[in-house]
Specification:
Helix content: under 10%
Structural class: mainly beta
Largest sheet: 5 strands, antiparallel
Number of helices: 1
Distance between the termini: 34 Å
CATH topology: Neuraminidase
Strand content: 35-45%
CATH superfamily: TolB, C-terminal domain
Length: 398
């Protein structure tokens, strides 16, 4: 079976990324393959310090990967999502990949099957949660699913809908789901789309768009989710109590550091991309600011009460940040404890020392569209290549 052809029309206007695709073939499977072509180091990367890595294909022939998650309690087993609604189970070390479940999704623009998070108690409960845009609607849905604790032994079922949010446009949906060290579910939502945040959703405290949400997923009575008592805006009549932080444009991928801090790549508008910590009650600034610069450009703004990014880069480096993870594996010692992230538009990857984040370390420009990152059971990192339909493992280039 042939690898699906991706017709790569990558157009960025106002920070919007548009894809056009042909119909896809079924997954080809897991492969043992040599590293892909060596990277380039152009532009600012030419003068940056470098860490030598290789990108080794471990799964090929999947259609537009959007998420990579290690299945708890099942060493070596990865759950993979695709934009068009398919979930797969892959075991690279054993050379296997098979369908897991399918969701009917709206795939317009940046919509689709976007994120999955296993419950902290999944190894006993089989509970997990999915972020997708249902077919026939323009909205975000967060739902709970039930599976056997070994998902290879039976098909999962969607058991209830926790949350639905109407989307005024088909881009800037966010997409990630993550459980924090506190056992609560964090949901990142973009500003609702278009350009310039026309509804000022980032700063509107009555909408969930442009926010990081924090909820409890263990139902009490008939409520689909609970509001943690220590959420920052509980009791504030002017603010939705689900909100953990505001002022986000499109937090496509985010994660928790080993120290428990939430960090996101927030996709910018026309000039700047940012890596930002997202703390309790923080205002990240959009649309008063794009990254750490007043928005619209050339205007004045009041920075009081706004949280500055950890790291910012401009259009000479890329146009659509993909947030990643702190590396905790052993195969690439030079990456230890560094935050690895990339840019979807330019195909560049970087590592950032979060203790001294003044300048990124260059990992190279690879000719890929890095749509998502994932962490395996041993802390090794994977990259989902949207362009060629591959899962790539990051390994040492020495």
């Amino acid at each position: 079976m042939k690898l699906k052809l991706l017709v790569a029309l990558l157009a960025t206007f106002g920070g919007v990324v548009v894809y056009q695709t042909q119909s896809c073939a079924a997954p080809e499977g897991v492969v043992a393959a040599p590293p892909i072509t060596a990277p380039a180091f152009s532009g600012r990367d030419a003068g940056r310090k470098r860490i030598a890595i290789e990108l080794v294909p471990v799964v090929v022939g999947i259609d537009q990967p959007t998420d990579i998650q290690a299945v708890p309690g099942q060493p070596g087993l990865l759950a993979l999502l695709t934009k068009e609604g398919q979930a797969l189970l892959a075991e690279p070390a054993k050379g296997t990949v098979k369908p897991w479940f399918q969701v009917a999704v709206n795939t317009r623009s940046e919509m689709g099957l976007l994120g999955l998070a296993f419950h902290p108690n999944y190894a006993k409960s089989g509970r997990f949660f999915v972020h997708y845009n249902p077919d026939g609607a323009q909205k975000t849905r967060i739902s709970e699913w039930q599976a056997p604790t070994d998902p290879r032994s039976g098909a999962p079922k969607e058991v209830r809908v926790l949350l639905e949010v109407e989307q005024p446009w088909a881009n800037h949906d966010g997409g990630q789901l993550q459980f924090g060290p506190d056992g609560l579910l964090y949901i990142g939502l973009g500003d609702g789309g278009a350009a310039d945040d026309p509804k000022d959703a980032g700063q509107d405290r009555q909408t969930l768009l442009g926010k990081m949400l924090r909820i409890g997923v263990d139902p009490q009575g008939e409520r689909p989710y609970t509001i943690p008592a220590d959420n920052p805006f509980v009791g504030d009549a002017g603010t939705r109590p689900e909100i953990w932080a505001l002022g986000l444009r499109n937090p496509w991928r985010y994660s928790f550091t080993p120290t428990g801090r939430l960090i996101t790549g927030d996709v910018g508008q026309n000039l700047w991309e940012e890596i930002t910590y997202v703390g309790r009650g923080d205002n990240l600034g959009w649309r008063r600011r794009e990254a750490n610069q007043c928005f619209p450009p050339g205007t004045a703004c009041d920075p009081q009460g706004l949280v500055d990014p950890v790291y910012v880069y401009g259009r000479d480096d890329g146009a659509s940040v993909t947030g990643g993870y702190v590396y905790t594996g052993s195969e690439v010692p030079d990456l230890k404890d560094k935050y690895v992230f990339g840019d979807f538009a330019s195909g560049r990857l970087w590592a950032l020392d979060l203790q001294a984040p003044q300048e990124a370390l260059a990992l190279g420009q690879w000719g890929i569209y890095p749509a998502t990152f994932g962490v395996g059971h041993a802390g090794e990192l994977y990259v989902g290549d949207f362009r060629e339909g591959r899962i790539l493992q990051i390994r040492s280039g020495r």
